[in-house]
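Possible regression after last week's pipeline update?

I re-ran a chain I had predicted before the update to compare outputs. Posting the input and the new output here so someone can diff against the archived version. Not blocking, just want to make sure nothing changed silently.
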Amino acid sequence: MVDNAFAETNLDPWLKWFGTTDLILMGINATACVEATARGAVKKGYAIHTAHDLIANPPAWITQNEVRYFEKKGNVYPSTLDLLAALFPSVSSKNDP
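New output (post-update):
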C-alpha cells in the first residue's frame, strides 16, 4: 500500500486540469499518509496548507519532524478557521460584524 495520494493515481492530472495550485491537507496520521501526500504534492509543485486540528494524531505531532516539514515546505495554521481566513480573506471578512 502506498501512502502518497499522488503515487499510482491520476490525482495530479485531475488537479492540474482544474487549475489547482494549493492543497489543504488533512487526515489521521501526520507521520504516514498525510506527510507522504504532502511530500508528493510539493514534488509536483503544489503549495501545501494544514492546521493543527486537521490532523487526528495526538497533539504531540505538532512538535515532531512532520510539522517541521509542513512549516518548511508549506503553511501550518493554529486552527482550520485561521487557515480559511488566510486563504480566503474576502470570504472571512464578509462574516465579520
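Follow-up from reviewer: compared with the archived run. The chain has one domain: 11-94. Marking as no regression found.
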